[in-house]
C-alpha cells in the first residue's frame, strides 16, 4: 500500500469516527422524546405516522419523558459546541497534512487536538446515554435491549442488501473511482 493510500485511509477514518450502535439508538430515543407531540396514549397514531414510538414501546412515564427532555435541552448546546470544535480540529488536521508545507510537529499538535475533540464528543454522548439509562426501569431496559437487537438486525440486513442507502451515491462513486456527475 502506497504512502498516499495510507494517508487517504487515515483521513477517511478520521472524518468518520466509529461509534457503537448504542449512541444511535439513544439518539433516536432522545429525539423521539424531544419531538414527541401532545398526542395522548388513547389516540391512535395518524396514518402518516410510520416511525415507531419508542416512548410508547418502552412505556416511559410522563416524568421520565420530561427528564429526558431536560437532559436533551442541557446537552444540546454543549454538544453543538463540541461538534464545532471537532469540525475545526478536523479542518486544521487536514491543513497540516495537505498544506503547502508539512511539519511533523504541527501534524502531531493538530492530531492531538483532533483526538481531544473526538474524545470530548464521545464523553458527551456516552454521559447522556448513561443519564438516560439511569432513568429506565429494569423492565424498560429489557425492552430497550430487545429493540436495540431488532434495530441492529435490520441495519445489518440493509447493509447486506444491494439497495444501500440512497443518501450515499457519492461514497459509492468514490469506491468505484467514478467522476462526480456534471452540473449543467
Keywords:
184 residues; mainly alpha; 7 helices; 72% helix; 0% strand; elongated
How would you describe what is shown here?
The chain is mainly alpha-helical. It contains seven helices and no strands. Helix 2 crosses helix 4, helix 2 packs across helix 5 and helix 4 packs antiparallel against helix 5. The longest helix is centred in the middle third of the chain and has 37 residues. The chain is elongated, with a radius of gyration of 21 Å. The two termini are 37 Å apart. 10% of the residues are buried. About 14% of the residues have low confidence.
Runs with pLDDT <50, length 5+? Answer: 14-22, 36-51
Quaternary structure of the protein: single chain
What is the makeup of the main sheet?
Answer: none
Would you count the extended β strands for me? 0
Helix content: over 70%
Rg over CA atoms, rounded to whole Å, is: 21 Å
Q: How large is the share of residues in beta strands?
A: under 5%
Which class do the helix and strand fractions yield? mainly alpha
**What is the 3D form?**
elongated
Return the average pLDDT rounded to an integer.
76
Distance between the termini: 37 Å
N-to-C SSE string, H for helix and E for strand: HHHHHHH
